[in-house]
Amino acid sequence: MSKSHGSHGSGLSAFNLTDAVEIKVTIRPDQELRAERAMEVNEDSASVRLIYFFETPELDLFDAGIALRARLVKGDADNSTVKFRSERIEMVAPEWYRSEGFKVEADWVGDRAVYSVSLTREQGRNEIQNVAKGDRAIDKLFSKDQERFFKEVYRGPIDFPQLRVMGPIRALRWKMKYPGFPHQLSVEEWRLPNGDDLVEVSIKVAPAEALEARTAFEELLVTLGLDPKGAQETKTRTALKYFAEVTKEPA
């Protein structure tokens, strides 16, 4: 949860308002196998999730920094999340920072740093699957508080029946320590229905450590033979573009 709230600038100053900074690199497609071999990950040791997004075919929510997401989590409670990403989050009312399930982080992808604020609620058994099958309305996955938060941060029209189910994405996640590297690594692989994989490597550090940690992280990637700048698009944008095209195809 955020330590404080008020007017601020964008970029690195944003880090001081968060508990953690996540530094991410989406691995280039031609280097995914090299990355997974270097980090010695395998499916048997992964935590497994199924992820769904709820979007318009034009990705209006994503382009506005909004993500509506639901996750089936093996061995843990399923959940739904409303997430807002922006370089400036003055529109987020202070009351949310005291809400259960509300999280504030700073994401650092490439040379761009943005806030990531989210409100998450647990879901009952089969609730997400029923929405994915079309047997239950999408808005039933989100609580009244989540819908109110959504309306506060999204300036466009909100019409749940116009949204499409985008998924499932099978997500494999590993957390590990790499010899000689001081921070815990997270590796996440998203598998799309067409067989494509999207691999992201990240670290999460305290705000005061962000600059030094980013340099060390990039040096590690270079040592492993990986491009520290990564792919041109994040894994989320790539996945949503895939599903948007699928939803536009004639039946």
Give the structure's gist in a few sentences:
The chain has 251 residues and is an alpha+beta fold. The termini are far apart.
Number of domains: 1
Rg estimate, integer Å: 18 Å
- Rounded to the nearest angstrom, the distance between the terminal CA atoms is 44 Å
Question: What structural category do the secondary elements indicate?
Answer: alpha+beta
Q: What would you call the shape? A: globular
Q: How many DSSP-defined strands?
A: 9
- Contiguous low-pLDDT stretches (5 residues minimum) are 1-14
Number of helices: 6
For this structure, the CATH topology is Hypothetical Protein Pfu-838710-001
Q: Helix-strand pattern, N to C? A: EHEHEEEEHHEEEHH
List keywords for this structure.
alpha+beta; Hypothetical Protein Pfu-838710-001; 9 strands; 22% helix; 33% strand
Provide structural commentary.
The protein has 251 residues and is an alpha+beta fold. The protein has one domain (11-248): Beta Barrel (Hypothetical Protein Pfu-838710-001), CATH 2.40.320. It is 22% helix and 33% strand. The protein is built from six helices and nine strands; from the N terminus they run βαβαββββααβββαα. The protein has helices at 32-38, 60-63, 127-132, 144-153, 210-223, 235-248, and strands at residues 21-26, 47-55, 66-73, 78-86, 102-109, 112-123, 164-177, 184-191, 197-205. The chain has a nine-stranded mixed beta barrel with strand order 1-5-6-4-3-2-7-8-9, surrounded by four helices.
